[in-house]
């Protein structure tokens, strides 16, 4: 196993984590910050509260969401043999968002158990979305790359419209609570992180162990079968795992596009396309990337905050077009 | 006599209404090369796909090493039967090493761990297919002759006693055709593999196969040594073209289309 890529990715992640904790509307001197993080308590209460109860949980949640979106983006790309697949572009994220809002508008007990029901609803909606998108995009036995994205965008737009309708119809607390679906990880508090962690963890661990099967699938279903891969089962497991991670991410941070597209591609360019490396590296770098985007979203219009989805879309949409041009020429896919 | 490694017993395969194989029976011995010939659409590829479990068989059964393939899990089947497909649309970014390692798929544990024995077998397969020096190159950069040897190495990494090749020389230059067929013969004779190779080129088949089988419209039309199967009358009927069979320079028969009036008009 080559160690160097993991060292680079981990270093970037640590740097992004520190940046995310350090940057905010209140300036906290670096020395004080380090002393808070190592557990010293004889410091101004305002500072410790800001770091430990606001910035740290938010940082943890953003990192988790970034890891989930980039890891599942890599998995979707491998699964559909499609360089443009991304949880947002194939509609799964929007479907999950609709599921989450439906669950929330029924009733929302603010407990860990209540919170954990939301990703589950998002997960079911995400799976339904995959089924609908794939069956719309399929042509015979093939799944053309462009069809998948077109169907994904259309279904995603439909789900987003329904979501907006539900949000605008809602009132009071619910309405405020739903604002995160615009793609800003403004929810804070450890409860959200803890509620998302088991789902994202289960999904991502499964994907990390799917690296070899995903490699086999790149040679097409027929060769994969001849190499002894239980193709149908592998597909189901990977779809479920990627959709679970996506759904949990969306349920607590809203629909954030393009991250699952950008990160795996950058890794592919630098370290090659072996999914045994690509998936874990996407997870590490996805966390780092979304943290950086979130920091940017916090400082650009400070003290106002941009939804982080705006930053990822600004970076991601041009990137998407670039890949679209490259993939026509089959240069490295 | 060599043990029978593969037995195809009155197998039929249908694509929708069309019967692609009609009650076909064949056997394949360890340590020998069976050349499968026949016109386009005769069912050569279908037979390979049926044996490797990609298309379900309608009736009959297929035994490998005495075990009914229909009853085996995908990994068990792939430990008995390995396929060398044609080198089309390979994912270009994979290195040769990564590609050949995929041959170990049916031997991995449920975590998909690559163990030292898997790497050892991969290295052996690459050396045996004369592709070891390519190990670090992306497969997209290779010539089709090299790609075909990489796919052969991947099949060897599977360590299966039965090896199926689908038109392995189809897109190769003459030098690579000969090199590949010599490799395949050597693998059969020295490693004891039972090899079934669908071949377009009758003369290549005549030179390298130990036995031959002629398929026409999903049925076995002739079987025996290449010299027995390459009969001018039988071939003329099978390919719907008059052919002549001449004694070739190397001792193997040489099949050439018979001169027809139209061929002089160019």
What do these coordinates show?
With 333 residues, chain A is mostly helical. Chain A has a single domain (4-328), classed as Orthogonal Bundle (ABC transporter involved in vitamin B12 uptake, BtuC), CATH 1.10.3470. Chain A has helices at residues 4-22, 30-37, 45-80, 92-106, 112-137, 145-169, 172-178, 190-208, 211-217, 221-226, 231-253, 259-271, 275-299, 308-328. With 266 residues, chain B is of the alpha/beta class. Helix content of chain B is 32%, strand content 27%. Chain B is built from nine helices and twelve strands. In chain B, α4 (116-128) crosses α5. The interface between A and B is medium-sized, with 26 and 34 residues.
Q: First CA to last CA of chain B: what distance?
A: 51 Å
CATH superfamily of chain A: ABC transporter involved in vitamin B12 uptake, BtuC
Radius of gyration of chain A: 20 Å
Approximate shape of chain B: globular
Low-confidence stretches of chain B: none
In the CATH hierarchy, what is the class of chain A? Answer: Mainly Alpha
| Chain-averaged pLDDT of chain B | 92
As residue ranges, the low-confidence spans of chain A are: none
Order of helices and strands of chain B: EEEHEEHEHHHEHEHEEHHEE
Report the sheet-strand fraction of chain A.
under 5%
Largest interface: A-B, 26 and 34 residues
- E-strand count of chain B: 12
Number of domains of chain A: 1
Protein traits:
heterodimer, A: 333 residues, mainly alpha, ABC transporter involved in vitamin B12 uptake, BtuC, 0% strand, globular, B: 266 residues, alpha/beta, six-stranded mixed sheet, four-stranded antiparallel sheet, 12 strands, 32% helix
């Amino acid at each position: 196993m080559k160690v160097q890529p993991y060292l680079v990715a981990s270093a970037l992640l640590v740097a992004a984590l520190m940046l995310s904790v350090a940057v905010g509307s209140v300036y906290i001197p670096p020395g004080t910050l380090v002393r808070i993080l190592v557990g010293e308590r004889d410091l101004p209460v305002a500072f410790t509260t800001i770091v430990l109860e606001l910035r740290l949980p938010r940082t943890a949640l953003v990192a988790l969401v970034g890891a989930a979106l980039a890891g599942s983006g890599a998995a979707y790309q491998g699964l559909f043999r499609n360089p443009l697949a991304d949880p947002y572009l194939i509609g799964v994220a929007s479907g999950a968002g609709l599921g989450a809002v439906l669950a929330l508008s029924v009733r929302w007990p603010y407990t860990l158990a209540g919170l954990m029901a939301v990703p589950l609803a998002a997960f079911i909606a995400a799976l339904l979305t995959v089924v609908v998108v794939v069956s719309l995009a399929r042509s015979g036995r093939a799944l053309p790359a462009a069809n998948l994205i077109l169907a994904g965008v259309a279904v995603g737009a439909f789900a987003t419209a329904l979501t907006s309708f539900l949000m605008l119809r809602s009132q009071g607390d619910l309405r405020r609570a739903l604002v995160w679906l615009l793609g800003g990880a403004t929810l804070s508090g450890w409860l959200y992180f803890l509620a998302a962690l088991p789902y994202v963890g289960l999904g991502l661990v499964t994907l990390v162990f799917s690296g070899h099967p995903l490699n086999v699938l790149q040679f097409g279903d027929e060769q994969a079968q001849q190499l002894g891969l239980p193709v149908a089962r592998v597909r189901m497991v990977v779809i479920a795992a990627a959709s679970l991670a996506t759904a949990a991410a969306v349920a607590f941070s809203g629909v954030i596009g393009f991250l699952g597209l950008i990160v795996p591609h950058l890794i592919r360019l630098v370290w090659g396309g072996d999914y045994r490396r690509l998936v874990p590296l996407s997870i590490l770098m996805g966390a780092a990337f979304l943290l950086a985007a979130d920091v940017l979203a916090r400082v650009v219009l400070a003290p106002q905050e941009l939804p982080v989805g705006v930053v990822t879309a600004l970076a991601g949409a041009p990137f998407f077009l670039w890949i679209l041009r490259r993939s026509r020429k089959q240069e490295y896919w | 006599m060599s043990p029978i490694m593969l037995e195809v017993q009155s197998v039929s395969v249908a694509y929708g209404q069309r019967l692609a194989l009609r009650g076909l029976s064949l056997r394949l011995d360890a340590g020998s090369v069976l050349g499968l010939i026949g016109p386009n659409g005769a069912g050569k590829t279908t037979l390979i796909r049926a044996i490797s479990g990609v298309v379900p068989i309608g009736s009959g059964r297929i035994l490998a090493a005495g075990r009914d393939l229909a009853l085996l899990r995908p990994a068990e089947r792939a430990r008995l039967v390995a396929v060398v497909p044609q080198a089309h649309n390979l994912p270009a970014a994979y290195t040769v090493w990564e590609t050949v390692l995929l041959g170990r798929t049916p031997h991995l544990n449920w975590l998909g761990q690559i163990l030292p024995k898997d790497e050892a077998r991969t290295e052996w397969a690459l050396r045996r297919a004369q592709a070891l020096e390519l190990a670090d190159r992306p497969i997209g950069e290779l010539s089709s002759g090299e790609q075909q040897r990489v796919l052969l190495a991947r099949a060897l990494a599977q360590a299966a006693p039965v090896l199926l090749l689908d038109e392995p020389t189809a897109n190769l230059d003459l030098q690579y055709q000969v090199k590949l067929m010599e490799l395949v013969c050597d693998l059969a004779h020295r490693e004891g593999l039972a090899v079934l190779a669908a071949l377009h080129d009758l003369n290549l088949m005549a030179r390298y196969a130990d036995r031959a089988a002629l398929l026409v419209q999903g049925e076995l039309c002739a079987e025996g040594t290449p010299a027995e199967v390459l009969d001018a009358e039988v071939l003329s009927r099978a390919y719907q073209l008059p052919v002549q069979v001449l004694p070739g320079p190397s001792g193997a028969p040489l099949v050439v289309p018979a001169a027809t009036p139209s061929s002089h008009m160019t």
